[in-house]
Amino acid sequence: xxxxxxxxxxxxxxxxxxxxxxxxxxxxxxxxxxxxxxxxxxxxxxxxxxxxxxxxxxxxxxxxxxxxxxxxxxxxxxxxxxxxxxxxxxxxxxxxxxxxxxxxxxxxxxxxxxxxxxxxxxxxxxxxxxxxxxxxxxxxxxxxxxxxxxxxxxxxxxxxxxxxxxxxxxxxxxxxxxxxxxxxxxxxxxxxxxxxxxxxxxxxxxxxxxxxxxxxxxxxxxxxxxxxxxxxxxxxxxxxxxxxxxxxxxxxxxxxxxxxxxxxxxxxxxxxxxxxxxxxxxxxxxxxxxxxxxxxxxxxxxxxxxxxxxxxxxxxxxxxxxxxxxxxxxxxxxxxxxxxxxxxxxxxx
Amino acid sequence: xxxxxxxxxxxxxxxxxxxxxxxxxxxxxxxxxxxxxxxxxxxxxxxxxxxxxxxxxxxxxxxxxxxxxxxxxxxxxxxxxxxxxxxxxxxxxxxxxxxxxxxxxxxxxxxxxxxxxxxxxxxxxxxxxxxxxxxxxxxxxxxxxxxxxxxxxxxxxxxxxxxxxxxxxxxxxxxxxxxxxxxxxxxxxxxxxxxxxxxxxxxxxxxxxxxxxxxxxxxxxxxxxxxxxxxxxxxxxxxxxxxxxxxxxxxxxxxxxxxxxxxxxxxxxxxxxxxxxxxxxxxxxxxxxxxxxxxxxxxxxxxxxxxxxxxxxxxxxxxxxxxxxxxxxxxxxxxxxxxxxxxxxxxxxxxxxxxxxxxxxxxxxxxxxxxxxxxxxxxxxxxxxxxxxxxxxxxxxxxxxxxxxxxxxxxxxxxxxxxxxxxxxxxxxxxxxxxxxxxxxxxxxxxx
Lengths: 349, 448
Prior knowledge:
Chain A has twelve helices and twelve strands. Chain A has 349 residues and is an alpha+beta fold. In chain A, strand 3 and strand 4 form a beta hairpin. In chain B, the strands form five sheets. In chain B, strands 5-6-15-12-14-13 form a six-stranded mixed beta barrel. Chain B has a two-stranded antiparallel ribbon with strand order 2-3. In chain B, helix 2 (14-50) packs antiparallel against helix 12 (407-438). The model of chain B is unreliable at 399-403 (pLDDT under 50). The chains are: A alpha+beta (349), B alpha+beta (448). At the A-B interface, helix 1, strand 3, strand 4, helix 5 and helix 8 of A face helix 2, strand 2, helix 9 and helix 11 of B.
């Protein structure tokens, strides 16, 4: 019983460690995506991209590789007689890839609402709820401020409105100046760039190196680190199972000697104990796998607030470790005991 | 008598003693290695992250409204505001100066390059700056003053140190020679290569500069050209002026105190909290100290970098703590199991001693002392093993040449490791020893 518990414990720790080893990396990679987009699509030769081409990004091949994207149009317009950069964006998509933005007020929802950078707001003398008009050539637009934007970047100098609103103002219906794309980091990123390049030849896909390099470096480090930690846990778990199994086998020294004394062949006796160990290993291993999965999900939940995807590799390894170590230990100990004279053992010396 | 017994029993079961010590040592190696790593890994990660861009932007208090579009940037002349280049070294005089990893000033204007409009940016590429000397004090809210040891020598900084993700083909321009670093896209459009000469026209005046490097970043920098700051200042007739400074600082992720300080303003914090806040390298407090040191400056957190970093490091820390907790637990269990085996093997010995008249107290003392001794031995071996292991792990993981060992940290880890080792050894032998003592001596001696 104790032995089964020990095996289960060891196996569960191994399963949990392996799950975390793979799961955490994926989760942290997602976490890193909050750094913002790591790819940008800009027009290659023409001045604009076509909005209708965005369906390319919804294509089956690319869909899995893209976590989020946001199309933009940038134009300079006059507000209050001053030139300001107006940015047209789809807010629902934008908010997903720019989680670090701090907004005082709320995201715009309606047609004539605008998000305005803090510096632009102070220079234009605008506050939350104010109305203003933007002029581009001969067209004009009346907007109201629903939110002030703090980012520490260029956005603080801009006025953000809905994509269609700006397209209408500048008479550029269906055109875009850039698309920001957030895609899984690492090796996959290069593949994504290649696929994008082929699928959308009018656009040039560029890797934002600052973000991409940071991600790569961190993920590589993380991987090494987690591998080493898993190895250590594996060793420790193996040791603990070994110790328990040896105890269990030692306890039955007398039994074994008795079997031998009654004429049991060394092989057969060993076989009986080995099959017992095998059974225990299986039961413990299965229990341990279940417990390990639970453990890794608990850790995943408490750290990331969501489940981590269990790695398929972890279960067979956990099971194999349980069975393997229990078999190995019991055979090792049994052999040592069988080498002794039954008479000596039975006399209790 | 007891000592004699103890020594005898440890010596006679040499193999067993070694096994137990080894297993305790393994466990405490894990404990000490993980403690070392858990305390330093987030710091290492933070350092690693810092090589990927500035997290603070300094601008003049009356920051002008800029029109930046497609890599170009316009500011109306009457709105322009500047900082003084001469004041920059003061960045290295603030309380958290050692946390400032790099910084670089910028001054930019639209120019014509070979007939095309482009943004010319003046900056420091790679500079050794002297650090201002003199005694400095920091006054705290409760009136106490702390003297800060002055730094001597120079500080190495500039764009090259700040933006390590830039891929530069050719060379970075030198500080003393007029060369330019040109963005990849602009270079392609102008069809210029390394060592070509380009004509740059500013306000009717034109100069010829040679291209020393081509930069690839993926961002707007690809459409700009970079020269050393002095040259830009001469071209724009703005001697000694800069427009903005990017600063890369090592900071700790924000917690409740930092959030409160940014909500109500640091001046409104209670004095002790203010002091804690001031003496912790939060992004907010570093910005506050920079604003104190350089007049007429506004510091802005570059949120894209700082927030993601903070969130990431927070998650990392939590993950490591959990992983470490699990690992330590496993190690301790392994030791307990070994101890149980060791005691179990000695059932007969216990029975014999009992039969010879030893009472439970004496026996308990003997076994616990033995366990304590082996635990201590294993703990000491394990502590140093762990130290080596942590060093190895961190060298493998971070290419930083190992951890910096702080004595205060070691002073905490050593006793914890030792305590854990002894406690586990004691705990591991307590239950089986008790069990063994409950048995009838006759039965154990007969081997049933």
